[in-house]
């Protein structure tokens, strides 16, 4: 039997990618920012719907909830960076809880070093990127749960090439935002790279978690919002 089109099987995934691309191209136009905010938020919101509709486990529900926080953060950060950061912390904490429910065996050697680098290096690098001394501790405080989330992804038994790699991309996108307050101030690099790197990271985390859960617990697979 021929495979049906991706748009038929996973419509929310397709809608998410389309929304992400539309936002990326429209942000370089003269369209007022208020019109872009819901488009931006819908990209990850559709990922949340995808996660919710594809699996009935508690882990899938938790990832969907984390993605809702990320979607709110995407929109809130356009209006207030503190509000956006608080929403993203919600994502980091919930995603970390999911990763802790799926821990690998004890890490050794290089794996343990990478774990520590993500956990401690993320806030440390974040602290030194802004030039404003008043912003440094705030950035480091935000980056603590960010680094913990990525370290948890690395220590989990989800596929690292998707989930841990996605978490690392999330870190890199945030470092670019922090660098915009310092060495990249006035540079167009953050404007063009933050969104695609961040979105790809969240996309990989979502796909990696959900496809793994569907393989491990096929009896909990759901098909609402798309057929298999």
TrEMBL record:
Keywords: Membrane, Transmembrane, Transmembrane helix. It is a multi-pass membrane protein. Its main location: membrane. InterPro entries: TMEM86B-like. The keyword Membrane applies. Pfam families: YhhN. The chain crosses the membrane at residues 12-28, 34-53, 60-77, 83-100, 112-131, 137-156, 163-181, 193-213. It is found in: Membrane. Belongs to the TMEM86 family. This is Lysoplasmalogenase. It comes from Aurantiacibacter sediminis.
């Amino acid at each position: 039997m021929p495979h049906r089109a991706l748009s038929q099987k996973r419509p929310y995934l397709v809608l998410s990618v389309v929304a992400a691309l539309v936002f990326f191209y429209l942000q370089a136009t003269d369209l007022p920012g208020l019109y872009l905010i819901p488009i931006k938020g819908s990209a990850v919101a559709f990922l949340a719907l995808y996660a919710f509709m594809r699996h009935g486990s508690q882990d899938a529900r938790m990832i969907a909830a984390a993605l809702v926080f990320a979607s709110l953060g995407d929109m809130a950060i356009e209006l207030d960076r503190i509000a956006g950061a608080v929403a993203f912390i919600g994502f980091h904490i919930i995603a970390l809880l999911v990763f802790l429910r799926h821990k690998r065996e004890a890490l050794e050697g290089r794996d343990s070093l990478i774990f520590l680098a993500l956990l401690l290096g993320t806030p440390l690098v974040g602290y030194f990127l802004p030039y404003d001394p008043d912003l440094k501790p705030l950035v480091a405080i935000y980056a603590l749960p960010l680094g913990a989330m990525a370290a948890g992804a690395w220590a989990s038994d989800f596929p690292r090439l998707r989930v841990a790699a996605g978490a690392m991309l999330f870190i890199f996108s945030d470092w670019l935002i922090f660098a915009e307050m310092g060495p990249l101030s006035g540079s167009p690099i953050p404007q063009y790279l933050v969104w695609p790197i961040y979105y790809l990271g969240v996309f990989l985390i979502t796909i990696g978690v959900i496809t793994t859960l569907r393989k491990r617990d096929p009896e909990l697979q759901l098909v609402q919002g798309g057929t298999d």
